Amino acid sequence: MEIRRQLGDPFQHIPTADMLLYQLHQGNAFVCQYFFIAERADVQYAMFIIEDGVYAFLAENAPSPLISLAPDLTIYVSGFSKNIAAGLRVGFIAAHEKYIPALMRAIRVTTWNTPSLMTSIICEWINDGTVAQLEPEKCKDAQIRQRIAQEIFAGMHYISHPSSYFAWFPLPEEVRVDQVAMALIQENISVSIAEPFAVSSSVPHAIRLAIGSVELDSLRTALRKVEMLLSNIGIYNCDCN
Protein backbone atom coordinates (compact mmCIF):
# COMPACT_ATOMS: atom_id res chain seq x y z
CA MET A 1 0.00 0.00 0.00
CA GLU A 2 1.34 3.42 -0.95
CA ILE A 3 0.75 6.16 1.63
CA ARG A 4 1.01 9.66 0.20
CA ARG A 5 -0.77 11.80 2.80
CA GLN A 6 -1.22 11.66 6.56
CA LEU A 7 -4.15 13.47 8.17
CA GLY A 8 -3.69 14.10 11.88
CA ASP A 9 -5.36 15.73 14.89
CA PRO A 10 -2.32 16.01 17.19
CA PHE A 11 -3.95 18.41 19.65
CA GLN A 12 -7.19 16.52 20.32
CA HIS A 13 -7.93 13.41 18.34
CA ILE A 14 -11.37 13.13 16.80
CA PRO A 15 -13.45 11.43 18.11
CA THR A 16 -11.71 10.31 21.34
CA ALA A 17 -10.16 13.68 22.38
CA ASP A 18 -6.82 11.98 23.12
CA MET A 19 -3.74 14.19 22.69
CA LEU A 20 -0.61 13.04 20.89
CA LEU A 21 2.41 12.78 23.19
CA TYR A 22 5.16 15.26 22.34
CA GLN A 23 7.68 12.46 21.68
CA LEU A 24 5.29 10.88 19.16
CA HIS A 25 4.63 14.34 17.77
CA GLN A 26 8.33 14.79 17.02
CA GLY A 27 8.69 11.23 15.74
CA ASN A 28 5.78 11.70 13.37
CA ALA A 29 7.44 14.75 11.84
CA PHE A 30 10.78 12.92 11.59
CA VAL A 31 9.29 9.95 9.72
CA CYS A 32 7.49 12.20 7.25
CA GLN A 33 10.65 14.26 6.72
CA TYR A 34 12.50 11.05 5.88
CA PHE A 35 9.99 10.20 3.17
CA PHE A 36 10.04 13.79 1.93
CA ILE A 37 13.82 13.64 1.49
CA ALA A 38 13.39 10.29 -0.26
CA GLU A 39 11.06 11.90 -2.78
CA ARG A 40 13.65 14.57 -3.54
CA ALA A 41 16.06 11.73 -4.26
CA ASP A 42 13.56 10.29 -6.77
CA VAL A 43 12.53 7.47 -4.44
CA GLN A 44 9.01 6.17 -5.16
CA TYR A 45 7.37 6.96 -1.82
CA ALA A 46 6.81 10.36 -0.23
CA MET A 47 4.55 11.53 2.55
CA PHE A 48 2.89 14.83 3.40
CA ILE A 49 1.16 15.85 6.62
CA ILE A 50 -2.25 17.51 6.74
CA GLU A 51 -2.49 18.86 10.28
CA ASP A 52 -5.91 19.62 11.75
CA GLY A 53 -5.53 22.36 14.37
CA VAL A 54 -9.18 23.18 14.95
CA TYR A 55 -9.03 22.08 18.62
CA ALA A 56 -5.53 23.37 19.34
CA PHE A 57 -6.98 26.13 21.53
CA LEU A 58 -8.18 23.51 24.04
CA ALA A 59 -4.71 22.06 24.61
CA GLU A 60 -2.90 23.67 27.53
CA ASN A 61 0.88 23.55 27.12
CA ALA A 62 0.30 22.09 23.69
CA PRO A 63 3.25 20.76 21.69
CA SER A 64 4.45 22.85 18.79
CA PRO A 65 2.38 22.26 15.66
CA LEU A 66 3.87 19.85 13.18
CA ILE A 67 4.19 22.65 10.64
CA SER A 68 6.85 24.22 12.89
CA LEU A 69 8.75 20.92 13.01
CA ALA A 70 8.38 20.02 9.34
CA PRO A 71 7.41 23.19 7.45
CA ASP A 72 8.36 21.86 4.01
CA LEU A 73 5.77 19.08 4.02
CA THR A 74 2.98 20.13 6.40
CA ILE A 75 -0.31 21.77 5.51
CA TYR A 76 -1.93 23.24 8.63
CA VAL A 77 -5.72 23.58 8.52
CA SER A 78 -7.93 25.28 11.10
CA GLY A 79 -10.92 27.57 11.52
CA PHE A 80 -12.98 29.67 13.92
CA SER A 81 -16.29 27.84 14.39
CA LYS A 82 -14.97 25.80 17.34
CA ASN A 83 -12.84 28.32 19.20
CA ILE A 84 -15.04 31.41 18.72
CA ALA A 85 -18.61 30.80 17.49
CA ALA A 86 -20.35 28.08 15.51
CA GLY A 87 -21.72 30.62 13.04
CA LEU A 88 -18.26 31.81 11.98
CA ARG A 89 -17.74 29.36 9.14
CA VAL A 90 -14.32 30.68 8.20
CA GLY A 91 -11.25 28.50 7.83
CA PHE A 92 -7.62 29.04 6.95
CA ILE A 93 -4.61 27.13 5.67
CA ALA A 94 -0.93 27.63 6.51
CA ALA A 95 1.61 25.99 4.22
CA HIS A 96 4.94 26.48 2.50
CA GLU A 97 4.66 29.19 -0.14
CA LYS A 98 5.42 26.75 -2.96
CA TYR A 99 2.13 24.91 -2.24
CA ILE A 100 -0.08 28.01 -2.07
CA PRO A 101 -0.97 28.27 -5.80
CA ALA A 102 -2.12 24.63 -5.94
CA LEU A 103 -4.06 25.00 -2.69
CA MET A 104 -5.78 28.15 -3.95
CA ARG A 105 -6.81 26.38 -7.15
CA ALA A 106 -8.20 23.45 -5.16
CA ILE A 107 -10.20 25.77 -2.92
CA ARG A 108 -11.69 27.62 -5.89
CA VAL A 109 -12.95 24.46 -7.59
CA THR A 110 -14.26 22.69 -4.47
CA THR A 111 -15.90 25.35 -2.27
CA TRP A 112 -18.20 28.34 -2.42
CA ASN A 113 -16.87 31.74 -1.44
CA THR A 114 -16.69 32.53 2.26
CA PRO A 115 -19.08 35.42 3.08
CA SER A 116 -17.05 38.61 3.17
CA LEU A 117 -18.81 39.81 6.34
CA MET A 118 -17.63 36.74 8.29
CA THR A 119 -14.11 37.15 6.98
CA SER A 120 -14.09 40.83 7.97
CA ILE A 121 -15.39 40.04 11.46
CA ILE A 122 -12.80 37.37 12.18
CA CYS A 123 -9.93 39.48 10.79
CA GLU A 124 -10.98 42.36 13.03
CA TRP A 125 -11.24 40.07 16.06
CA ILE A 126 -7.78 38.66 15.40
CA ASN A 127 -6.29 42.14 15.16
CA ASP A 128 -8.04 43.62 18.21
CA GLY A 129 -7.31 40.63 20.48
CA THR A 130 -10.85 39.25 20.73
CA VAL A 131 -9.79 35.80 19.53
CA ALA A 132 -6.92 35.69 22.02
CA GLN A 133 -9.37 36.61 24.79
CA LEU A 134 -12.14 34.16 23.85
CA GLU A 135 -10.00 31.05 23.38
CA PRO A 136 -8.89 30.76 27.05
CA GLU A 137 -12.49 31.36 28.13
CA LYS A 138 -13.69 28.50 25.91
CA CYS A 139 -10.94 26.28 27.28
CA LYS A 140 -11.98 27.10 30.86
CA ASP A 141 -15.61 26.32 29.98
CA ALA A 142 -14.59 22.92 28.59
CA GLN A 143 -12.66 22.15 31.78
CA ILE A 144 -15.68 22.99 33.94
CA ARG A 145 -17.85 20.66 31.87
CA GLN A 146 -15.30 17.86 32.02
CA ARG A 147 -15.17 18.13 35.82
CA ILE A 148 -18.95 17.71 35.91
CA ALA A 149 -18.63 14.64 33.67
CA GLN A 150 -15.84 13.20 35.83
CA GLU A 151 -18.00 13.58 38.92
CA ILE A 152 -21.04 11.91 37.38
CA PHE A 153 -19.14 9.16 35.55
CA ALA A 154 -16.78 8.39 38.45
CA GLY A 155 -15.69 4.75 38.27
CA MET A 156 -16.90 4.39 34.69
CA HIS A 157 -14.59 3.48 31.83
CA TYR A 158 -14.45 6.23 29.21
CA ILE A 159 -11.88 8.29 27.30
CA SER A 160 -11.62 12.06 27.28
CA HIS A 161 -9.33 14.99 28.00
CA PRO A 162 -9.56 17.58 30.81
CA SER A 163 -10.08 20.36 28.23
CA SER A 164 -12.32 18.56 25.76
CA TYR A 165 -15.96 19.03 24.83
CA PHE A 166 -16.39 15.30 24.20
CA ALA A 167 -16.32 11.94 25.97
CA TRP A 168 -15.80 8.58 24.25
CA PHE A 169 -17.47 5.52 25.78
CA PRO A 170 -16.32 2.05 24.62
CA LEU A 171 -19.16 -0.41 25.14
CA PRO A 172 -19.22 -4.15 25.90
CA GLU A 173 -19.28 -6.26 22.74
CA GLU A 174 -22.60 -7.83 23.65
CA VAL A 175 -24.30 -4.42 23.73
CA ARG A 176 -25.77 -3.04 20.50
CA VAL A 177 -24.58 0.52 20.01
CA ASP A 178 -27.63 1.54 17.98
CA GLN A 179 -29.93 0.44 20.78
CA VAL A 180 -28.00 2.54 23.29
CA ALA A 181 -28.22 5.57 21.00
CA MET A 182 -31.95 5.01 20.48
CA ALA A 183 -32.59 4.65 24.21
CA LEU A 184 -30.84 7.99 24.79
CA ILE A 185 -32.83 9.62 21.97
CA GLN A 186 -35.97 8.67 23.87
CA GLU A 187 -34.55 10.71 26.76
CA ASN A 188 -33.98 13.65 24.37
CA ILE A 189 -30.22 13.02 24.40
CA SER A 190 -28.45 12.67 21.07
CA VAL A 191 -25.08 10.90 20.88
CA SER A 192 -22.83 9.89 17.99
CA ILE A 193 -22.04 6.28 17.25
CA ALA A 194 -18.55 5.32 16.09
CA GLU A 195 -19.35 4.40 12.49
CA PRO A 196 -19.18 7.94 10.97
CA PHE A 197 -15.65 8.32 12.39
CA ALA A 198 -14.34 4.94 11.23
CA VAL A 199 -11.74 4.94 8.45
CA SER A 200 -11.80 1.18 7.91
CA SER A 201 -14.26 -1.71 7.98
CA SER A 202 -13.38 -2.29 11.65
CA VAL A 203 -15.75 0.03 13.51
CA PRO A 204 -15.09 0.71 17.22
CA HIS A 205 -17.83 -0.39 19.58
CA ALA A 206 -18.45 2.97 21.21
CA ILE A 207 -20.49 6.16 21.44
CA ARG A 208 -19.34 9.77 21.61
CA LEU A 209 -21.02 12.24 23.94
CA ALA A 210 -20.82 16.00 23.32
CA ILE A 211 -20.98 18.13 26.46
CA GLY A 212 -20.60 21.66 25.13
CA SER A 213 -23.96 22.69 23.71
CA VAL A 214 -26.25 23.10 26.75
CA GLU A 215 -26.40 25.09 29.98
CA LEU A 216 -24.58 23.54 32.93
CA ASP A 217 -27.74 22.61 34.87
CA SER A 218 -29.19 20.91 31.80
CA LEU A 219 -25.85 19.19 31.23
CA ARG A 220 -25.87 17.68 34.72
CA THR A 221 -29.40 16.38 34.23
CA ALA A 222 -28.56 14.86 30.85
CA LEU A 223 -25.32 13.26 32.06
CA ARG A 224 -27.10 11.63 35.00
CA LYS A 225 -29.53 10.04 32.54
CA VAL A 226 -26.61 8.79 30.44
CA GLU A 227 -24.87 7.44 33.54
CA MET A 228 -28.00 5.58 34.63
CA LEU A 229 -28.44 3.92 31.25
CA LEU A 230 -24.77 2.97 30.86
CA SER A 231 -24.54 1.59 34.38
CA ASN A 232 -27.50 -0.65 33.60
CA ILE A 233 -25.61 -2.24 30.69
CA GLY A 234 -22.50 -2.95 32.76
CA ILE A 235 -20.02 -0.31 31.65
CA TYR A 236 -18.69 0.03 35.21
CA ASN A 237 -15.38 -1.82 35.54
CA CYS A 238 -15.81 -2.92 31.94
CA ASP A 239 -12.67 -4.02 30.11
CA CYS A 240 -13.93 -2.45 26.88
CA ASN A 241 -11.54 -1.52 24.07
UniProtKB/TrEMBL annotation:
Domain annotation Aminotransferase class I/classII large: ranges: 45-224
Pfam families given in the database record: Aminotran_1_2
GO molecular function: pyridoxal phosphate binding
Coiled coil: none
InterPro entries linked to this entry: Aminotransferase_I/II_large, HTH_trans_reg/aminotransferase, PyrdxlP-dep_Trfase, PyrdxlP-dep_Trfase_major, PyrdxlP-dep_Trfase_small
Listed name of the protein: Aminotransferase class I/classII large domain-containing protein
